[in-house]
């Protein structure tokens, strides 16, 4: 009975909120506020998407993680790769014309699938903050973790972007007993993705937010949890906690952005207390993708998976409370899109 009710609730929410997924390109008008984001970028591989990012004229570019592929505990080597990334002509132009914010994932953190156990995380954090041109007086210079809040005010409405750190505090993962899968959910209630201090910060930010839209940036996927790789689903109690935190905060128009997977997809789910589906927009990757992708289970998926180089674009319309979400490929081609009212 409970399962049938949840399925019914999901159906009602999606119909009432007019979620629309397009299989072919539709004309999307320029939003009042535009966000571009992406992940999985090798600094020494030609990124053909920077001109398309610039053409989209976003108000902000968000790094979703794996800005470089360092995989080292030597902060000097990481810094050298970051400097090489800054010298890439297309990205250098992005830096001149667009505000850049973001987070890291495992490869720029320094350890593949790494978490709290990475011994060089403190040094790596400072190098990351240098790359992001974070001021020496910024709180991130004195605390653990690269999480941050960014507020944007426009004449039409306000946007808050909450950038999470899913690396610095994340507990050890549970190896999977299933062949072909790397990890599986651990014991419910054990372990953490964000750590106590970051959770307290996030709850305060959401509870106090007066923004029309609140964007949560997670380097790893939040809703897709059956593929056997890294995901919030490896800590199911943390998934439930974030859903509850979002719902009870009263924060408006919450959307999750994620990366990591070398594929792009939309996922959505009903959350008790929200009158719209919670969307997890995964955009990955910028310079390389899982081109041989042949499918994986994701009950929350909306539409089809895109396994082509792309970045994510969100056009926020305040008056209609609609967000147009697009996966943009080379030469500005729209590979998939989703329209959602809030």
Summarize the structure.
Helices cover 25% and strands 24% of the residues. The chain is an alpha/beta fold. The strands form three sheets. It has a seven-stranded mixed sheet with strand order 1-16-15-14-2-3-4, with helices on one face. The protein has a seven-stranded mixed sheet with strand order 5-6-9-10-12-11-13, covered by helices on one side.
Helix count from the secondary structure assignment: 8
Structural class call reads: alpha/beta
Strand content: 15-25%
* Order of SSEs: HEEHEHHEHHEEEEHEHEEEEEEE
Protein architecture, described:
Helix content is 25%, strand content 24%. The protein has helices at residues 2-16, 50-56, 75-86, 89-97, 106-109, 121-131, 196-208, 236-249; strands at 20-22, 33-38, 60-63, 99-102, 148-153, 158-163, 174-175, 183-184, 213-217, 254-258, 264-269, 278-282, 301-306, 311-317, 322-328, 334-341. Strand 9 (213-217), helix 8 (236-249) and strand 10 form a beta-alpha-beta unit. Helix 2 packs parallel to helix 4. It is globular.
